[in-house]
Amino acid sequence: MTLTELKYIVAVARERHFGKAAEACYVSQPTLSVAVKKLEEELDVKLFERSANEVAVTALGQEIVRQAQSVLEQAAAIKEMAKRGKNPLAGALTLGVIYTISPYLLPSLVRQMIEHTPEMPLMLQENFTVKLLDMLRTGEIDCAILAEPFPDAGLAVAPLYDEPFYAAVPMKHPFANQTSVTSEQLKNETMLLLGSGHCFRDHVLEVCPEFARFSSNAEGIRKSFEGSSLETIKHMVAAGMGVTLVPRLSVPKEALQLKPKRQRQDEAYIKYLPFEGDPPTRRVVLAWRRSFTRYEAIAALRNAIYACELPGVTRLS
Hints:
alpha/beta; 8-stranded mixed β-sheet; two-stranded antiparallel ribbon; 10 helices
């Protein structure tokens, strides 16, 4: 039994597909398949049920895969101990970020990391919350920037900031003459939503729950439309197709100036409005496995995030 074989079975269990697992491990599919078969023969157990379309993990296989992941983490911890003895911040840090945060935080965060910890480059992975949680559990990434709530996965979590939502409306919309908006006013509007899988979609539906009934059937096409990213949805708002909610960091600085200067052409057709009273917010956190040993790396990453310009959010410690 080798660590490489354990790595292979963890990958197959995660991907549910030998070809995709081989690609993730940077080996050919025959190489991976032979190694998995060799391990099954050595253990005299069947780890996977194979079919034409899918690979399923057997009940005993699930236990063995969990133990294999633990062994791989312990082996990685030995290497990390050696690195930390020389330089606690030496080596890349693999960071996952959800889609509705990465475009607005990463440009500043990467600059901060280059300036203050150049010996610890960020390896970045952008994905959905559910996928990033899976990648955290399997050790594919070291830590992740997520928005609460998310399923409790036994992770260590540190709060970063609370971020309010703004309403984005077309410049020719009647709301554009207002200085603020209420969730009640949005009830009769055509709401533009992110597609399924985005946690920000759920945040919007919490603020405007009446749109939940329109988000999964044909009738709803008349009341809500979906986009693949916040930036795509902003284009749709600029085109006058409806309104949406966006996180504060996604609002261009120029859009909130009394006399906007040099706005991007499509942004010039959008008015961003705060909510009256207590605005709806999301809490952004940093999560990592409790078994992750590079404490100094996590601390350095948090410091870099706090050093970023985060207009309009409430920093947490």
